[in-house]
Amino acid sequence: MAFAAIHFPNFPVQAVIRAEPPLRGAPVALVEGAPPVWNVVAANETAACMGIQIGMTRTLAEQFEGLQIRLRSLAQEIAAHAALLDLAWSISPRVEDTAADVLVIDVAGLASLFGSDENIANLLMQQVVAFGFTAHVAIASNLEAAIHAARGLRGITLIAPGEESKRLGALPVSVLGASVEILETLELWGVRTCEALAALPVLQVSERLGQQGVQLHEWARGARARAMVLAEPRITFEEEMELEDSVEELEPLSFLLGRLLDRLYMRLTARSLAANAVHVQFALDPVGRKDVQIRNDDSRRKKKSSMYEKALTLPVPMRDSKMLLNLLRLQLQGDPPSAPILKIVISAEAAKPRAVQTGLFVPPSPDIAKLELTIARLTNFVGDGNIGSPQLVNTHRPGEFRMNLFAPSREGEKSLRKAAVAANALALAKTPATRAHDFADSKPAIGFRMFRPPLPASVQLYADRPKRVSFRGAHGEVLAASGPWRSSGDWWREDEWHQDEWDLEIRFHIPPGRQAKSPASCPQHGLYRLYFDSIVQGWFVRGIYD
Amino acid sequence: MKTAATLRLAVESALAGRISAPFVYRDRKICETVPSGIPEIDSLAGGLPRGSLTEICGPHCSGRTSILLSALALRTAQLEACALIDSRDAFDPHSAAAAGVKLNNLLWVRCQNVDHALRATDLLLQGGGFGLIALDLSDVPPETVRYVPLNAWFRFRKTVEDTPTILLLLEQEPHAKTCASLVLSLGMDSSRWTATSDASDFPPHGSLLDGFHIRAGLRRSKFESASATSISPDPGHQHHRRFASHNLETVFESKTSWGIPDGSWPADPKQK
Question: Is A432 on the interface with B (CB under 8 A)?
Fold first, then answer.
């Protein structure tokens, strides 16, 4: 049995740096509190070396040249911690969420996958760096010993079974997480290291420090063992970013969205998942740039901001953050937010990635990712609802259909190949006479073109049949007619219909001058479908046979 | 004096990076064709060429949509993704389904004007992967289509070249000029009704529209003529050939889905 503990020093600062990668390497301090009293609550090592101390006021901290001061962000810490859990689950399914800055992984059984404990520790360190963090990793057979070693020792630490006491001995007692009172007591006693605490008689420690003292004594010896408390794998993936200055332009917004999407997709990839849908929420600043009121941080916090939401549903689960960013940009170009943006929240619905098996004889089909991007670009200028696959609706209403998302079907591929082989064999067996007879039977279906909306028409009847027709400035005589074919329906609804349809062969009378100008656009002769709408009491042209 | 080989080397090195093989003859006239679903059209033109621009011209009610639906039915039956850019939103899904088009394999782009239609065609050609892309300008007046610059058609032709995509252009008059590899012109010949009569008391509901005859002419073909070849009726069978163009005109019939089945005609039907 072995446990790997990962400690992330100055975790609040690391969470902020994760959101702003340019801060990496710079001295950073976080402040928190009610303005105007802001105190430093966290600082990285570089800032500490400069002289920044916890509890220092913001005003004093600002005196240090080069120091980057940021507000502490709980939202970023939550997102960063979720990312670290995803990192841990990518290594092992048994993970304990010990603290905000400590994770423990059960590495038992991973030797067959990753090799020795040293390899596992190196892999963990690489993954941590790839996620944009710094950490200390310790592996021990005792869970508590691994945690304390990770807190106290830098870099990678491997503790062999039985050596816990020896390796933890030099560490200060503060790494054990004791209360302030106990630490003060131990300080008074001159007990500063774990070795010194472990050397004390346990009975006397119990008498003076109680049960917590006994616990600390066991931890100092690396003797206390406990079971892991497993964390439940999460299914929500969310990243957010609060902006100090509102963003209005698409270009800087795209940059921020790209960064958030990269982080989101890194977490999905670590869990071997893809995004099925992405939801974007913007908290908008209702006070626009043209507002002359001077705003300070306080007034900005107090104002309630409205929200802008966008949902992007993907045809198949995808892991391409660049493609998704392009889709979001296209959507935002078509429907931009009405005010500058103060906060961005992106969440992804996770799904298993799609596994596609291609074949040598598969007919050409568009790449799903490129097609999605193309359709998004087309939607920008043809409009939503004007692109997709038509689907017939189960109704008798003439011309009724709905538009669906375009998703080419591969159903029947195997039977198609079999049918092609069979047809080929049959064709080879046929004689030319048989083939000629086959040709005679295969007449194409007649095409029909709709007029949307239907064209109003004027019809003269003779003996209850259309005799002369006029529409769109053309006048014609009916040569042949078929009808009326009555249909009606939806009488229980407001949009009921009641129509008498006719198929008419019409010869138009076109002035010679107009015909010579553009003979193709002036039809002399055509087959049309007209209908009489009994509800509005009018004639309309539904379409033309072509 | 420089030899031919030296000169050739000098020319190839000068053109290196711009033209890969300037002295290699590239026979552009052989192309892969697929059946249109109408045997008469296939006999006339050899099928629809892949990687080329095909123009189908004709006035209203000349059979352009019938040919389009037949081609879409064959391609979608082969599970190829197809796209229809509809400049005037005239496509009828019901007649398409009756013609055998698998609608879930068809991307329908409903445009409002010619500019949107051209931009949509550009984007879909650039995306690639479609077996057939049809640009329907049938209802756009020829004087409007005339304003489309020639370089647009040239760009379409270049984009679709060397791809398996069939690019169909439906319009009232041909406009793509030399950019089109195949140009067919259509016209209505005569209509067919299940029953006709000059008697004044003949009820109009006693007759159904059965279809009409379409006259198709081969206006231009960029491919060499060859001896007559047999055409397989199998819709999936594809050809690499120089196809026959010795028949410049043909007539075929289109049929309504509710007409009388062949072989059960009345004793003496009259055609109009």
Answer: yes
